[in-house]
Amino acid sequence: MRIHGLSRTACLTFAAAALVAAPASAKTISVSADTPDANEKLQEALIMAVSGDVVELGAGTWKLTDGLSLDVANVTIRGAGTDANGSILDFSDQQGAGEGLLVTSDDVLLTNFAVLNTKGDGIKSKGADRIVYHELRVEWTAGPKETNGAYGIYPVESTDVLIDSVFVRGASDAGIYVGQSKNIVVRDSFAIENVAGIEIENSYDADVHDNIAMRNTGGILVFDLPSLPMQGGHNVRVFDNIVKDNSTPNFAPKGNIVASVPTGTGVLVMANNNVEIFDNAFEDNGTANIMIVGYRYPYKDDKYQPLPRQIFVRDNAHGRAGFAPGFPGGAEMAAAMGGSIPPILWDGSGNAIVNDDVGVLSLNLPDVQTPQSEAKPSPVDLKDSAPAALPGIKLPASMEAKVQ
């Protein structure tokens, strides 16, 4: 188990060679929180930056009433740290319901600052290829509340996404969320007290490793949902993570898909294809360490595939689980089985191979339209030969250089 790089206070210096095609005119634009017009100066710096520039945030706290945006490619936003003495973008008095920072350009590095208490999402990027989120803190400081923003770190519709050494707490949907994207790495990060700690949704080719997901409602989610422009999520590896004590009651607003995630879920795979879950450490997840389910809601998308397929579970360490199942009838099942259900829960749809040496409970629901209330559970053994291993994700060298 490798868990490293979780420092939230380290301040990195990046040489010009680490930037992508930095022109000779590239410069550092320093912005201070101590000037009377600090808010305007910060947004002005993001507007005036050109390719290769570094927008450098001094130590201090910005009290922001409006969201920030960046639409210039190949720009770095670098702060002086993520703790109380670092660079803090505080949106407690934000007037609108938008995100704290929105990025819509390619080859951007976001590093070493904190975003607090946004009304909407913390940091969002859309259509931003080769984006790097590094050494960041996004937090709703009052703890889990339905009125918190939905997402902490939120890249969508992108190719080549690196999320490295971030801390997210309090998101009312997902702390770290990657949607409708390709070639993704989420590593060395800490997700605590969110509804979903880390979520990969409708995306292709992702590695989620060396993270800690704890005290969320659900630790790590791998979903594929209908009626989205990019579908057929596949090739996701979840490995070398610590997933423990995901016991926070679900505080998502009603109607959100994650509002249905049972409290006490470790890893949840829904309707995805080619997912490997291996070498993780699970402990104290009251519903299950691993759940594998189909999509059991009405939909009108003829192209959507609601079944989980080719889900492979192996070589995980399983601590206590299944002692407080958070789905209807779960408590009765646990009582009938001596106080807890097995650590791995499968609804019976699609196909899965489990080579962990622990119990597996199948709800025997091959028809994804069958309600859970009609489940007839029985322990099953899904052990079988291993499928071909998925290849690891390789990001462009320019992205990896930015976090060295």
TrEMBL record:
InterPro entries named among the record's database cross-references: Beta_helix (IPR039448), PbH1 (IPR006626), Pectin_lyas_fold (IPR012334), Pectin_lyase_fold/virulence (IPR011050), SO_2930-like_dom (IPR022442)
Superkingdom of source: Bacteria
UniProt signal peptide: 1-26
Pfam families according to UniProt: Beta_helix (PF13229)
Right handed beta helix domain segment(s): 100-247
Keywords: Signal
Region (Disordered): 369-404
Stated name of the protein: Right handed beta helix domain-containing protein
